[in-house]
Amino acid sequence: MRRFAIGMLPLAIVVAALQPRCAPPPPGEPAQWITAPTPASHVAFPIEKGWHAVDCNSCHGSSDTFKGFDCLGCHTQPATAPRHANVPAFSHQSASCLACHPGGTGGSIDPAVHASFFPTAAGEKHAGLACSSCHVTPADRTRIDCTGCHQQALVAPKHVEVGGFAWLSTGEQTTSLCLSCHADSQVLRVAAHLPFGITSGFKHFQQGCLDCHSTARVDKPYATDFAQKDCLLCHSATQTTHAGRPGFSFATPACLGCHPAGTR
Predict the structure, then answer these.
(1) Average model confidence (pLDDT) for the chain?
(2) CA 170 to the chain's CA centroid
(3) Is the full-model pTM beyond 0.70?
(4) Which of 157, 154, 217 minimizes the C-alpha distance to 181?
(5) Taking a C-beta distance cutoff of 8 angstroms, is the pair 117, 82 a contact?
(6) Maximum CA pair distance of the chain?
(7) Residue whose C-alpha is closest to residue 259's, from 202, 216, 191
(8) Which among 214, 234, 232 has a CA at the least distance from the CA of 224?
(9) Cis, peptide link before residue 88, omega less than 30° from 0
(10) Which has more confidence, 12 or 42?
């Protein structure tokens, strides 16, 4: 039996030599996994398609076992933390990410929490929309595009009387203007801007909204605080034209005190 085993040794060496071997990866590239499941069998966390259809090493490359994972390489703190400012017990840790997003989606966010950014709860105009309808970059939820639904051909005719309305070069840039005025999904009518008239025939017709309302909201820094007003940006010459007038003060409250309707 011993002689048989020794005699078979050269054959075993030949067979082993013919087997494919794990070659070292090219310089600068991670080694290939040899026990990786297929995307279709990765049922615990969907990766076959969608946002997380990425290379295995994107999530597991920093660990020597598939039980280890890293969400933070893509979902960086500067992009993620601001979007979770009002989420109780938020922690920028991979385990915390998976606990709240076990399916890799953002749909688990409470609508009441989402309202601190933009209202999407039942009964709201944007209720029921898929996250990807507005959030165009999975790794950075601050990147938003309203123009997929609110297309220029539909939106522009409704803003002909709105000063400062513009359709910019990208959807995300245009969206920044959308949110500055509609951060609560509200629509403020030009005709309702009373007693300070801004409709056709008034001196301030088509004056840019953000020229007069230039202060950002505290709760939503990307939005305009329409309760704050500024007349001085345009009416700087009043210091000369009102010289000698009793009680004159170069201040917005004084302007509106004498000109509540925006007329002389």
Answers:
(1) 84
(2) 14
(3) no
(4) 217
(5) no
(6) 121
(7) 202
(8) 214
(9) no
(10) 42
Q: What is the per-residue pLDDT across 104-147, written as a single tens digit (0 to 9) for each?
A: 876 556 777 788 889 988 899 998 887 788 988 766 778 899 99
For residues 68, 73, 78, 81, the Cα torsion angle rounded to the nearest 10 degrees is -30
For residues 213-250, one letter each, b for 16 or more C-beta atoms within 10 angstroms of the residue's C-beta and e for the rest, the string is: beeebeebeebbeeeebebeeeeeebeeebeeeeeeee
Residues 6+ apart with CB under 8 A from 22: 31, 32, 34
- Coil, helix or strand at residue 8: helix
Whether 20 shows a pLDDT value over 70: the answer reads no
As given in the structure block, the two tokens for residue 223 are 């939005």
| Cβ proximity of 185 and 118 under 8 Å | yes
Distance CA 167, CA 181 (A): 14
Q: How buried is residue 30: exposed, middle or buried, by Cβ count under 10 Å (0-12/13-18/19+)? A: middle
First to last CA, the chain: 115
pLDDT at 69: 93
Q: CA-CA distance, 206 to 195, in Å (whole number)?
A: 16
Residue pair 250/256 in contact (Cβ under 8 Å)? The answer is no
Residue 231, CA distances (Å) to 7, 41, 204 in order: 100, 63, 11
Give CA–CA dist 262/232, Å, rounded: 13
Q: Where are the domains of the chain?
A: 43-116
The three-class DSSP label of residue 198 is: coil
Decide: 230 and 252 in contact? Cβ < 8 Å: yes
Q: Are 209 and 164 in contact (CB under 8 A)?
A: yes
